[in-house]
TrEMBL record:
<dbReference type="GO" id="GO:0005506">
    <property type="term" value="F:iron ion binding"/>
</dbReference>
<dbReference type="InterPro" id="IPR017972">
    <property type="entry name" value="Cyt_P450_CS"/>
</dbReference>
<keyword id="KW-0560">Oxidoreductase</keyword>
<keyword id="KW-0349">Heme</keyword>
<protein>
    <recommendedName>
        <fullName>Cytochrome P450</fullName>
    </recommendedName>
</protein>
<comment type="similarity">
    <text>Belongs to the cytochrome P450 family.</text>
</comment>
<dbReference type="Pfam" id="PF00067">
    <property type="entry name" value="p450"/>
</dbReference>
<dbReference type="InterPro" id="IPR002401">
    <property type="entry name" value="Cyt_P450_E_grp-I"/>
</dbReference>
<dbReference type="GO" id="GO:0020037">
    <property type="term" value="F:heme binding"/>
</dbReference>
<dbReference type="InterPro" id="IPR001128">
    <property type="entry name" value="Cyt_P450"/>
</dbReference>
<dbReference type="GO" id="GO:0004497">
    <property type="term" value="F:monooxygenase activity"/>
</dbReference>
<dbReference type="InterPro" id="IPR036396">
    <property type="entry name" value="Cyt_P450_sf"/>
</dbReference>
<dbReference type="GO" id="GO:0016705">
    <property type="term" value="F:oxidoreductase activity, acting on paired donors, with incorporation or reduction of molecular oxygen"/>
</dbReference>
<keyword id="KW-0408">Iron</keyword>
<feature type="binding site" description="axial binding residue">
    <location>
        <position position="256"/>
    </location>
    <ligand>
        <name>heme</name>
    </ligand>
</feature>
<keyword id="KW-0503">Monooxygenase</keyword>
<keyword id="KW-0479">Metal-binding</keyword>
Length: 315
């Protein structure tokens, strides 16, 4: 969604802050999830705080929609430039037909879903990838050499180029292995009693899949705590839910629907950042001393956000 023309009334900073607050709260272990009788009491205040943040975000999206409706009314044209235009066009058709399948409330909640599931997951993965590369300059040089060779100096990376950039793809996979941004996926519940590898999972048990631990399992991965993209060059591992060794987007019917978009964006953004800039750390920070501690929320973020300095590439 292009929000450039909506910035008069809505600050992107406000959106980013509310999103990040929401992700942090949603990731906190909530006693009421394990002892349902506590739900009404909300002993940690998590639901109360989340209600305030959700309301704030819904209002914010409401303001964006109103602003867009105003602009469209003034110009008298039905634009179809981004997802918000498309949703508004569908809403207008519904109103004309006197159907109420898509109204402003549904659009507000749909945007909340997309933004909460799609923004921090993608940006955090990119940040981890960049941190690993700044920490290992030889890997960054190898990636940049591949880009120079395939894309050529002075040219921009395009989506179509990604299939010819195996090392870049391997870096993204290695980032997913070590830093899955949804480390415990989304909790599941067993429909019925089921036996898996000699364990009985009783009906209605909540099942939490620890993707982070799978990625760090030494019986599956050699040197699991080392960032080695090369490990993916000779094996064909798909991150789309078929290889259970690497399922950063989950698997099965509830697999992340944003998977194709996220994969496109990540390769394009990472490729562009590496091809257009050389990267260095602030004075005094040694690559091998970079703080890679994790902060646990609904997404797994860097405890200390990466601060890297871009130096434009001379072409
Ligand atoms: C690197 C980026 C991303 C990662 C790692 C990621 C990961 C995930 C994971 C692990 C799940 C839960 C799946 C499961 O439990 O099996 C999920 C669900 C979801 N994701 Fe993503 N995601 C990313 C980007 C996106 C984007 C860009 C969008 C949309 C624009 C998106 C929309 C959603 C939605 C709507 C759900 C909930 C689906 C449901 O409950 O049925 N995600 N994502």
């Amino acid at each position: 969604m292009d929000m450039a023309d909506d910035t008069n009334s809505v600050t992107l900073k406000e959106l980013k802050e509310a999103m990040s607050h929401m992700m942090e709260e949603l990731g906190k272990p909530n006693l009421a999830d394990y002892f349902p009788f506590l739900q009404k009491i909300d002993p940690q205040g998590i639901r109360r705080r989340n209600t305030v943040t959700f309301r704030k975000l819904i209002n914010l999206f409401g303001r964006i929609i109103d602003q867009r409706l105003k602009v469209r009314e003034a110009s008298g044209s039905l634009k179809d430039d981004d997802i918000l235009d498309t949703l508004i066009n569908m809403m207008v058709v519904d109103q004309e037909k006197k159907e109420d399948q898509l109204d402003k409330t549904i659009i507000e909640h749909f945007l909340l879903d997309l933004f909460s599931a799609g923004t921090e997951t993608t940006s955090t993965t990119l940040e981890w990838a960049m941190a690993e590369l700044v920490k290992a300059p030889e890997i960054m040089s190898k990636a940049r050499a591949e880009l120079d060779q395939v894309i050529g100096k002075g040219n921009q990376v395009k989506e179509l180029d990604v299939s010819r950039l195996p090392y870049l793809q391997a870096i993204v996979k290695e980032t997913f292995r070590m830093h899955p941004t949804a480390p415990l996926l989304i909790p599941r519940k067993a429909d019925s009693d089921i036996e898996i590898s000699d364990y009985i999972i009783p009906k209605d048990a909540q099942v939490i899949v620890n993707v982070w631990a799978i990625g760090r399992d030494s019986s599956t991965w050699e040197n699991p705590d080392k960032f080695i993209p090369e490990r993916f060059l000779d094996i064909d591992i798909d991150v789309g839910g078929r290889d259970f060794k690497l399922i950063p987007f989950g698997a099965g019917r509830r697999i992340c629907p944003g998977f194709p978009l996220a994969m496109r964006m990540l390769h394009l953004m990472l490729g562009s950042l590496l091809h257009s800039f050389d990267w260095k750390l602030e004075d005094g920070v040694r690559p091998d001393a970079l703080n890679m501690d994790e902060k646990f929320g609904l997404t797994l973020q860097m405890a200390q956000p990466l601060r890297a300095i871009p130096v434009p590439t001379k072409h």
